[in-house]
Design a protein that fits this description.
Chain A has 3 helices and 9 strands. Chain A is of the alpha+beta class. By secondary structure, chain B is mainly β. Chain B has strands at residues 6-12, 15-21, 44-51, 54-61, 70-76, 83-90, 95-101. Classes of the chains: A alpha+beta, B mainly beta. Chain A binds chain B through residues 24-25, 34, 36-38, 42, 77-80, 82, 97, 100-102, 104-115, 117-125, 153-156, and chain B through 15, 19, 26, 28, 30-31, 45-46, 49, 51, 54-67, 69-78, 91.
Chain lengths: 156, 103
């Protein structure tokens, strides 16, 4: 048996474990502040400030992120939104509603095996852009889609 | 404890299509009651989805997720008989976990 090959395998094994634990947020000190529920992020009022806090200050626009939502949502309390990313190694997807009192709606960490294709319902206070901020292979990308809202969903 | 979730996990295109309906008010914290007082926010903050006990998706939610939240996603490589577990925690510390077999 080749001893260096054994060592190599062991090293890969422990690296894999570290990656898994890190992905689960068990290691502190990572720049991604969105590992556990963070009220500061979800109560941020300023959109640009929020995107900066999420780490996406220099996010590039991407056509590889597809947001599906109705052009006109009659009821702002339930707006179905699908976010699909075709970017390789998509690891995080955040959904923001531009003109909501608190723009951040949700952040998803994609661990092993889940496809970057998420469906959910969000509340929208008024007509504005829905923004998907995607982290893929360590870099941030962004896409927007306008949704017109007939009745705002703030009271819901 | 909150009512059980409705979870469907079906085999589709070499993976599992998972659809979850949770029972939760998801109070936004923006609404006022009849007396004009703000109703405090009450919402799910964390959701974890696991396949056979191994976490595959972790979500952090604000109050902008709609009442009775719906979540849909796909797990690559999941097969019939695999167990999908969904767990959530809300901002009052209430929690709920339900599981279903992929069919």
């Amino acid at each position: 048996m080749n001893p260096s090959r054994r060592t190599g395998l062991r090293a890969t094994g422990s690296l894999g474990l570290y990656a898994t634990l890190a992905a689960l947020g068990l290691f502190e000190g990572r720049p991604v502040s969105a590992q556990t529920f963070n009220a500061t992020l979800f109560q941020a009022k300023n959109l640009n400030e929020l995107i900066r806090m999420l780490g996406g200050a220099s996010a590039a626009n991407s056509k590889e992120i597809l947001i599906t939502a109705p052009d006109i949502a009659e009821n702002g309390a339930v707006v179905p939104v699908t976010v699909r990313s075709q970017l390789p190694r998509t690891e995080q997807i955040s959904l923001l509603v531009e003109k909501n009192p608190d723009p951040l709606a949700a952040t998803f960490q994609l661990l092993e095996g889940v496809e970057p294709d998420l469906r959910m319902n969000v509340k929208m206070a008024q007509s504005c852009d829905v923004i998907a901020l995607v982290k893929a292979d360590g870099r941030f990308f962004v896409a927007r889609r306008e949704v017109k809202v007939t009745i705002g969903g703030c009271g819901a | 404890m909150a009512d059980p979730m409705k979870i469907r996990a079906t085999v589709k295109d070499g993976g599992a299509d998972v659809r979850v309906l949770m029972a939760h008010e998801m109070e936004s914290g923006q609404r006022r009651d009849a007396a004009g007082k703000l109703v405090p926010a009450w919402h799910i903050t964390e959701v974890v989805a696991a396949l056979n006990g191994k976490p595959v998706l972790k979500a952090l939610w604000g109050p902008a997720i709609s009442k009775s939240p719906f979540l849909g996603f796909r797990i690559r490589g999941a097969q019939a008989g695999d167990v999908v577990t969904i767990s959530w925690v809300d901002n009052r510390g209430d929690k709920r976990s339900d599981e279903v077999k992929v069919v």
